[in-house]
Amino acid sequence: MQGAYPHGTMSQAAHFLLIVMSLQMAIVSNLRKLEAICEAALHDSVDFLVSLFRGASNNLFLRDDSTLSSDIDESSPITDIRDKY
């Protein structure tokens, strides 16, 4: 007496499961790579922004010919524009 499933059906099921497991491993691997890329991009963005707001970059959002930009003392901490008026 033979089993309930013919031999061909079992090999197709095994092949299907092998493909599914292979795709799952590829997806997990790619997800880890994307997470690493996003983490590096976030870290670089934060480092870039921190470097912009140090030192002489207090006038970052003001035009060079603005009277407000020339009134800001580079040695003092950043002040709110509303405090000037």
Give a written overview of the molecule:
The chain is an all-alpha fold and 85 residues long. The chain folds into 2 domains: 9-45; 53-85, no CATH class. Helices cover 60% and strands 0% of the residues. It is built from 2 helices and no strands. The protein has helices at residues 7-52, 67-71. The longest helix has 46 residues, at 7-52. The model has no long low-confidence stretch (mean pLDDT 73).
Summarize the structure.
The protein has helices at 7-52, 67-71. By secondary structure, it is mainly α. The longest helix has 46 residues, at 7-52.
User: Which regions contain 5 or more consecutive residues with pLDDT less than 50?
Assistant: none
Mean pLDDT: 73
Order of helices and strands: HH
Quaternary state of this entry equals single chain
| Shape designation | rod-shaped
The biggest beta sheet reads: none
Keywords:
85 residues, mainly alpha, 2 domains, 2 helices
Secondary-structure blueprint:
Layout: H1 7-52, H2 67-71
